[in-house]
């Protein structure tokens, strides 16, 4: 038997892959299948941002005189309906997983002591183990994080109603996404970032992102000293002596691997299980995948890691390749980017074409951004980014094509869908013409 601990993307995909290959697989899930992606992170952002975008588009059209009002948000009803949809999706995933031949055990804790596997306190025979126990929210070491009204992505569903003033602490994707959502809902929002907000983004892409965060006060290079309140949150004190009033505080300060139940395995300083490219741990026949092995903390990467682990359990030598895996954040537009990892190249940027989801924004002189990075010697596309409605789907396929060596010259033969917000095709054809001209 093969034991899989954790029913998130890595564990579920790994378990199904093994079962479909004819193995007896038992998946142990303490809560609900689908992991944090479904119940607290990715899908929650999708749900809330769908509503936020509707409000923003309505606001734009009201300003143009097309609509006569902007809808108001019932946050308690959003909470209720989100839970209903999550339960439906979880039941679908459960049925899909069982249909693949996986035995699913709920309400139990799987844990390891070296090569010994346990379900609660009962040791279970396992020919191999896939540990996919995920991550948890990182909590900064500042006083007041235990006050009522202080939330993480995992506890946000308990917030009873919209706050008048919200402080989002963090400088990453989650901080930007939730700040955008609650500002659209009507809350006053401030982001407090210890260093910079999205500082690893290309400057032009970051500039485009900040357009979507207009109306959000952003404080960078500002550590938090404490969160104040008598029983419930009242304000956030900053290290520079400033103070921000707040009815709610959201800690978007990153993730840490959830590996406490996995003993006897080699770990990093943050608790991440150390694996090789085959997802093998330091203990024979024990594999790990997903957030528990640390960054990049991406659902597509976790799914692939689970499959790679399964392939190696089956004796098929397979390595994990992170090249070309796209990343994204969801604001008014989608912002997505992918790279082959190659350095250098020529970067070209251009406004994106207007299309579905961006037509009315042309009145404000903006329809998004397209960017590509090209190897001038070979014409290979080695990086791309887009800030447009639908960018996430576009970059999913583009990242794979870049990995396969697509060149800007190949775009001469591509006939794209129209109307579309895709500016990569046109920009790539422009780059191809520019390189041909340069080469004479």
Automatic annotation (TrEMBL):
It comes from Methanoculleus palmolei. Its EC number is 1.-.-.-. One of its GO terms (molecular function) is oxidoreductase activity. The keyword Oxidoreductase applies. InterPro entries: FAD/NAD-bd_sf (IPR036188), FAD/NAD-binding_dom (IPR023753), FAD/NAD-linked_Rdtase_dimer_sf (IPR016156). Pfam families: Pyr_redox_2. It comes from the Archaea. The keyword S-adenosyl-L-methionine does not apply. Keywords: FAD, Flavoprotein, Oxidoreductase. It is an enzyme of class 1 (oxidoreductase). This is NAD(P)/FAD-dependent oxidoreductase.
